[in-house]
Design brief:
By secondary structure, this protein is mainly β. 14% of the residues lie in helices and 35% in strands.
């Protein structure tokens, strides 16, 4: 019992820290019809009458997706997601920021479906100036198909933090001064897609989609976009102001509570870290692998 009380107390501290953030920069309405547009297969996108919930469908005919109306440079994005239930092997739900440029920047959540009885895998990745190969994977500590959970990206001049229910699962620091790529100049839009990834997503592509179990549905609600809207000049988004709260010193690194959770995730739930894959990089790991995460 004491263990669970400690967990509840730590989560409470994280939520209190997040609640103290200024909302002056919130640009989302909470309405998918107003904040996003459909980019793929409108017939496979279903939105509630009030615009507050949306689902994507994947079947043999098509996947589906939507994207934000605006582009952003730094901020925090939250989305509540309920993933594809049942046998979801081969399906991919992607929730990410992307600049859509030839040398694109990108910050990815990718949820990789699995066979019944095996956990969903959450893969994250960071592209900087068109270069990626920065995958990390974790097993989630809950069933993400039973209820909605909050998935967040904090992106500022100092760091990128991936969070699940306010728990930091990954940190990618800005080490540009040491020659490491970091997304800091290109504005990015928010995209959400559901698609067929069975050539690679589950067990290296060995587990294929069982179309008889379809259609496959993922659901979304309670999005919050608290970010700097791109107006053509990076200076406004890089400024330290009351509106750009994410650039303040207190958000330049993880808090002590966040560090405890981060270490817990890495110790008990991480299943792949590119920074430990010497074989892939032929014993020449990327430079950021030897630099501090916070």
């Amino acid at each position: 019992m004491n263990k669970y009380l400690k967990i509840i107390a730590l989560v409470g501290l994280l939520m209190l820290e997040m609640a103290q953030i200024s909302v002056a920069s919130v640009v989302s309405t909470g309405d998918f019809n107003k904040d996003f547009f459909v980019i793929w297969s409108p017939s496979h996108v279903n939105t509630s009458a009030d615009g507050l919930t949306r689902s994507l469908k994947l079947d043999q005919e098509s996947g589906s997706g939507f994207a934000s109306n605006q582009m952003f440079l730094f901020g925090q994005i939250d989305m509540q997601i309920k993933l594809v239930p049942g046998r979801s092997a081969g399906t991919v739900v992607a929730y990410y920021l992307t600049s859509d440029q030839p040398n694109r920047d990108e910050i990815d959540f990718e949820f990789l479906g699995n066979v019944v009885g095996q956990p969903y895998i959450l893969q994250t990745n960071v592209f900087a100036d068109g270069n990626d190969d920065r995958e990390e994977r974790i097993n989630l500590w809950f069933d993400p198909t039973k209820d909605f959970h909050t998935y967040s990206i904090l992106w500022n001049l100092h760091q990128i933090v991936f969070m699940v229910d306010w728990i930091p699962i990954r940190v990618y620091r800005n080490h540009a001064d040491k020659g490491v790529g970091f997304p800091r100049w290109q504005p990015m839009s928010i995209k959400v897609t559901l698609w067929d990834g069975d050539s690679w997503a589950t067990s290296g592509g060995r587990e294929k989609i069982d179309w008889s179990k379809g259609p496959f549905i993922a659901s979304f609600r309670n999005h919050k976009i608290d970010a700097c809207v791109w107006k053509g000049n990076a200076r406004f988004c890089r400024a330290d102001s009351s509106t750009n709260w994410w650039n303040k010193e207190r958000f330049s690194t993880l808090t002590s509570t966040q560090r405890r959770w981060f270490k817990w995730v890495r110790k008990y739930h991480m299943i792949y870290d590119y920074c430990q894959d010497n074989q892939r990089f032929q014993n020449n790991l990327p430079k950021e692998c030897s630099l501090p995460k916070y």
